[in-house]
């Protein structure tokens, strides 16, 4: 990541609009907790070259609270209600599908 962050959370999600997989990278730690969220498409030919560096145009909304995730945090997917719940070091987050 451009901030040199570590201990960030990740989710792999299907994009229903075009049936491709997306990698969502969020939070992390760089001298303090981060709150940025990035989305990469799994079908992006450049994806393999961007591991460890995420360009600014892939950044979407920031998380409401900064946080980091040891081993990506514990997660529960609730497909019935369309949410993933991720436990961070400080907060519990819900990402809607």
Question: How would you describe what is shown here?
Answer:
- This protein is mostly beta strands and 97 residues long.
- The chain has one domain.
- It is 4% helix and 37% strand.
- It has 1 helix and 7 strands, in the order E-E-E-H-E-E-E-E.
- It has one helix at 47-50, and strands spanning 9-15, 20-26, 37-41, 59-60, 74-78, 83-87, 92-96.
- The chain is globular.
- The model has no long low-confidence stretch (mean pLDDT 76).
What is the topology?
Layout lengths: L8 E7 L4 E7 L10 E5 L5 H4 L8 E2 L13 E5 L4 E5 L4 E5 L1
Antiparallel strand pairs: 1-2, 2-3, 3-4, 5-6, 6-7
What key attributes describe this structure?
97 residues, mainly beta, four-stranded antiparallel sheet, three-stranded antiparallel sheet, 1 helix, 7 strands, 37% strand, globular
- Helical content stands at under 10%
Total beta-strand segments: 7
Strand content: 35-45%
- Low-pLDDT segments: none
Rg result: 13 Å
Quick synopsis:
The protein is mainly β and 97 residues long. Helix content is 4%, strand content 37%. It has one domain (9-96).
């Amino acid at each position: 990541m451009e901030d040199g962050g570590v201990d960030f959370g990740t989710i792999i999600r299907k994009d229903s609009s075009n049936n491709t997989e997306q990698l969502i990278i969020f939070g992390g730690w760089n001298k303090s907790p981060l709150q940025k969220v990035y989305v990469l498409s799994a079908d992006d030919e450049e994806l393999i070259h961007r591991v460890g560096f995420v360009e600014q145009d892939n950044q979407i909304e920031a998380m409401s609270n900064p946080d980091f995730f040891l081993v990506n945090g514990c997660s529960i997917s609730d497909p019935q209600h369309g949410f993933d719940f991720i436990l961070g070091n400080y907060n519990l987050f819900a990402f809607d599908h």
